[in-house]
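Re: your question from the hallway

Yes, I did run it. Sequences:
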Amino acid sequence: MENNQQILLASRPSGMPTKENFAFKEAPIPEIGVGEVLIRTLYLSVDPYMRGRMSDRKSYVPPFPLNEIIVGGIVGEIIESRADDLSKGDVVIGNLGWQLYNVANTAEVRKIDPTIAPISTYLGVLGMPGLTAYFGLLDIGQPKEGETVVISGAAGAVGMIVGQIAKIKGAHVVGIAGSDEKIDYITQELGFDVAINYKTTDNIRQALKEACPNGVDVYFDNVGGEISDAVLSLLNHGARIPLCGQISLYNLEKPDVGPRIQSQLLINSALMKGFIVSDYAKQFKEGAFQLAQWVQEGKIKYKENIVEGFENTIDAFLGLFKGENIGKQIVKVAERSQQSD
Amino acid sequence: MENNQQILLASRPSGMPTKENFAFKEAPIPEIGVGEVLIRTLYLSVDPYMRGRMSDRKSYVPPFPLNEIIVGGIVGEIIESRADDLSKGDVVIGNLGWQLYNVANTAEVRKIDPTIAPISTYLGVLGMPGLTAYFGLLDIGQPKEGETVVISGAAGAVGMIVGQIAKIKGAHVVGIAGSDEKIDYITQELGFDVAINYKTTDNIRQALKEACPNGVDVYFDNVGGEISDAVLSLLNHGARIPLCGQISLYNLEKPDVGPRIQSQLLINSALMKGFIVSDYAKQFKEGAFQLAQWVQEGKIKYKENIVEGFENTIDAFLGLFKGENIGKQIVKVAERSQQSD
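Structure:
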């Protein structure tokens, strides 16, 4: 068995993170105690929200400590078990360290069924991004048939699921994304009604106006900044705005300044609500069940952008902020063992 | 009988309104038709939201047309009736013209009972401002016992009722207002726990921190701008922000620019919702009943700032933006007739 390899946060990024903010470290493979399992990492998730944890200001969740292993979504297989409920060969998901081998107890991981869907999807459509889309759109956005739903970051892991759920609910769905490839994908493959490439549009406000002739009823916001300013100018009375992310701002060095939005919310009796998927932890089972059903019925398609190799984790993470990926960005660390005893 | 006198919108204000934006006009007293009543104005309401209607940009309600009579809340008595349900001597409330005499049909006015409370209160605590406070706080803010509720514009017609309802619900109530007289009034007379004079406080953020040692759960916002920026920096997870008004911005000539607030809402899973009292029209009866009960029980006190004389209406309106008034600003236009046949 090889040694363990780990990725630590070496320094806090100022603005856009760089490779220098991270460090690789070699370590022995840990021993497990009673009630614990040893997990070999198969897939590792890189997500935009993790940028927030790299700063030491308040965010959804506490900051990552410096010089410690970064923690995120991991799918792995158990290679050694001293826990009653988990056996060698089981595939589990959990919030674990960016390393080749993790030790966990049974409360820290959840067993997943590899026969339902590819195990990587538990980091995407059937996991955190899927549930984020599901609860943010349905609980806060509450789209009704015939309403207009606008989604920023529409070709990202969350956005593409939001749009497909909105279509299931009978909405007119408009996506905003940053490349023609993304635009083509979400309209031609995923069934979005209209998509706008904000990078090549001269006038995003005008483009949105044309795409939303009846105004905007729901704005699912992943990006913030000027794109959001433009969407907010088109709100209908009683509009709902789930705030899922503000990726355009995560790497700003100065505070984000722009037109204050309260007047727009006020004159339209509009609702804006921030959320994090863990707000809905009690309903995860219901959400995951519904998502799996829609995937099986072909009503929701998913796309993963899988980078091979633990050593490419940092690049995969940095790529999130370059607008390069379509769909869920995942790092494949190892192949699942063939034996399943 | 004297002639009718009317106040017209002569020009649209740019920035702070001035007397020159208004014109007085004399006109004959109108004739009424079948189904109509002639109403003599007794009290007239001046309200901050009316500023929005004087501009021609989109607001809650359509703009006032130029060179036409301004429309607002009026309490008056019927001096002539050709309607079945209303008689001479009845006191009614409605959205009517700023003039000594209005013609209305029965759908446009609502009869009020002068024996329950002084008739002017139907423009204040038992009327639009009271209902605004009631629904904004209870439906959107949903304060729970022991939570912290912060109110800007706390000594205004709406703010002072919000604070008292929040106290009834068992909250820790912090008011922000612009004079020591206001501060003393809302703490000593109305029972707010803490009040901050934003005009004499060096550091509003620090003052709020001290006033809200457990953070902010509900922020009832009447003013917007930098005061709101400071409050939003103290939100707790799951905070609720009813947006009632943005009086600090109504007279700005340039767009209001400041730190974008989405990040604050996002990291705190906070909800912000604009509203206008008419969103709750179906529940007015319930709200008015509860407010009247609280007033009768002495749990809600009210304060009116009554200016005498129709000719002082413009001054009373302009005074709203100078921060001079405590409580509901009302113009008394005429005494009610003694005969009540």
